[in-house]
Specification:
With about 250 residues, the chain is an alpha/beta fold. The chain has eight helices and seven strands.
Length: about 250
Amino acid sequence: MTVDLSGKTALVTGSGRGIGRAIALDLARAGADVVVNYSRSRQMADEVAEMIQAMGRRALSIQADVGQKADIDRMFDQVESELGPIDILVNNAGIEPRADICDYDEATYDDVMAVNLKGAFFCAQRAMRKMRDAGWGRVVNISSLHELTPTGFSALYGMSKGGMAMMMREMAMSYSKYGITINNVCPGATRTDINRKVLADPAYEAKVVAKIPAGFIAEPQDIAPTVTFLASDLARYITGASIFVDGGLWL
């Protein structure tokens, strides 16, 4: 099977590094023009955009804090002005502060829910308006196996991903009739900046690997092809689904 996204424009939030970076590059390899969104990592985002342009695709690097609706609207206004409507939205941006449940403060709670859930909702809302008019669109949310299972180390993260699961299903129920598919990709343990510190402890890494039936921790590029597939016409009959890319960790 060949995935061809030629003529499509994709926006990947939080795509200057990690899983978002891998997804942005994979979508570009399949033919899509890509908007690389970042909050603080401008240099890394610019590098990803340059790599995409080197493939012969159009690319923009745009700063926006998806936890702020005004930033989301500004970003979409710029994209639509320079590249046209978004055909493929990948809600990847997320934060995962680790703490005891009783130690979280209100500001941290608000930050996690704003970035992980509010941002995904309002990015999808903005994108789906134009997708509905076009009769075609793809929304892929990067969720987590923790939309089903508690984390034990970041309750706010798990709560936000549980909310993302229901958000996706509500959107799929209402908007699939317009030719839009809405799905979640749920990575398991992956070597990203979020996990780098804890995985630097060999004992902790061994404990994690022991729980994974596949026997290893994923790299970001292990997640990206599933997103690219869901963004294509090959996956036109998949909507309202959470797809676990976790080596069997959730079993």
